[in-house]
What does this fold into?
Amino acid sequence: MVAGLQTASAQGFRVYKSDGTFTQFSFRTDSIVFYEGAGEDVDFGPFTPVNQMIIGTWYKTKSETITFGEDGTTDYVEGATYEFLPYQGTIIFYNASDAPTNILKVYKATAERMIVGPLDGSGYEVLTRAKPVVLVSGITLSETSLTLQPDELKTLTATVLPEDADNPAVTWESSDGDVAEVNGRGRVIANGIGTCTITCRATDGSGVYAECFVTVRDFQPVTGITLSQTSLSLSLPNNTTKTLTATVSPTNATNKNVTWSSSNTSVATVDQSGKVTAVAAGSCTITATAEDGSGVKATCAVTVTQLVTSITLSQTSLTLTLPNNKTQTLTATVTPTNATNKSVTWSSSSTSIATVDQAGKVTAVAAGSCTISCTATDGSGVKATCAVTVNDPTHGYTNGHEWVDLGLPSGTLWATCNIGASSPEAYGNYYAWGETSTKSTYTWDNYKYGTYKNITKYKLSNEYYTGDNKTVLDSADDAATANWGSSWQMPSLTQLKELVNSSYTTTEWTTKNSVKGLLIKSKSNGNTLFLPAAGYRNTTLDSDGSSGWYWSYNLNTSVTYSGSAPIFASAQNLYFYSTTIIFDNSGTRCCGEPIRPVIKK
It folds into this structure.
C-alpha cells in the first residue's frame, strides 16, 4: 500500500503509513473519531453539531418557508424530525416512529443559499436565508393610443403585475411635453398639435415599462355615416344574424366611433360591433350614431320573419281505388303557429298516377304509386309527404302487357296497345290474317296459306272441293297468342261489335298525342280505349291517319265466287274512319293489319 494514500471506509477515511498501517477517522454528529490500527478509538469532541449548518428558516418563495429547528424538528414534513449528513450531502427525515420517510439531496450549501432536490436528480429548488424580492414583470395601460384635441384631458391607469410585486410604484413621462404632458397619476393634458409617447415605468429596477401613443389634432366632426345595408331581412330559426358595417366621413374625423341601437329589441338586437340578431317576427330600425356629439346617424330597416319549421299532414299514406274511391283531401298543419307565411303548395311526383290541387285534394288517375308533397312557400324548404297508392281493378297487366276493363257485358278485357306498340297511340306491327310474324310487304305472292284462288287453310267444304271447315284461327295462327302468350288472343267479331256498341260505349274520332284515331269510352265505369287510325299494309302503308283496320280471328264465310267455285280470301275486321264505324267489314287475308288483343276467356 502506498504511504499517504487515502481510501474511503464506511463513513470516514483511512490514511496509510509507509509500514502499511493506517489511521482511520470518521464523523459523528458532534465529534471526530480516530482509529489507530488495533488500538483503542480516540474520540475528539464534542464539536458544534453538523446540523447547525442548516438550522434556521429558509425561504422557498416570498411567502413560503422551511424551518430546520436546533432540536432536530422541521416543518418540511408535518411532525417530522431530521438529520443532516454533510459528508453524504443528504438530509434525512424521520417520522414519529423514527423511521426514515424522505431524503433530500443537498447539491450546494452556503450561509445564505442552499440548493436541494430528490436523490434521483429529477428536480431542485433554491432555498434562501433572506426573503426573495418580487420584481415587476409587466405593466398594462388602460389605453395604448389616444387622440386628443388641444387642452383635452385624459387619465391613463396602469395595472402592475404581479399583484404581489414588492415595489409596484411607477413613474410617468412624456416624450414631448409641447404636444402632451403627464403628471404622476397618469393624467394627460394635450398642449399642441403633434404626436408623442407617454411612458409608464416601474421604479423597482426591473426595467419594465409600457407606452401610450398620443396624437393631438384639431377637432374634425363626423359629417356622414354610410351603412353597408339600408334594409335587412332576417328569418327565424336559421338566418338569425347579420353584421352591419358603418363607414364614417370624413376620413380624418377626430372621433370615428359610432354607437349602435335598436328601436325594438323584442324584434332584433344589435351589439356595438354592428351585429344584428333576430329575436322575433316583426320590424324595427337599427341606428348607428356618431359618438363625437355631432348628431350624425344612419339607419337600417330590419324585417324579421318567422319561417315554417315543420308541416304535418293529416295522412302520411293514402290508398285510392278506381273508379269509385278516387279522391281524398289532405290537410296540412304548419308550425309554429306564428309563422309569418303559412301558405303551402301541393305537388305530385307523378300526375299520371294521381294529381293534387292547391286545396290538397288528391285524385287518382291510374294504378300505381306516387308521392304527394306539401311544401312551405316561405323559402324555408320545409315539406311533408304522403305516399299514395292507386289501385285499379279495371286495369292490370298480364305477361307484361296492360289491359283495361270497360265494363262490357261479356267481361272482355282489352289490351291498351296494339301488338308491337309501346303506347296506346302507336301503330305497332301489321300481320296478314293467320300469320304470326311481320313482313316488309303483304301480298298473295307471300301469303302463308295459298293464293287468292287457291286457299289452303281456313275454308268451307262445298260441292266443288273439300275444305277444313275452320272459321276461327287456331292458337298457333293467332298473332296475339304467338307474340304475347297463351293468356292473350285476337278478338272475335262478336267482341269487336260489343266494343263499339252504343249501348255500352261512346265513340269519338279524336287526336291523342298528335295521332288520329277512335276513342272508345265505357258508359259504366268511364274507362277509355284508344285505337289509332293505323291504316293497313300491302306493298306500302296505306290510309294511316285517316282510317283504322283491325283483324278479328273470324273467317269471312260470305263466299266470293271465281267462275263457278267459291273462294274464302277474306276475314272479318273492324273498319272505321272519321264519320263511320263498320264492325262486320271484311278484309283481304293477305293484307297487313294491326291487332288489338284481348284476354282469353
Q: What stands out?
A: Residues 1-11, 27-39, 42-49 have pLDDT under 50 and may be disordered. The chain is about 0% helix and 45% strand. Residues 258 and 291 are 5 Å apart (CA to CA). The radius of gyration is 57 Å.
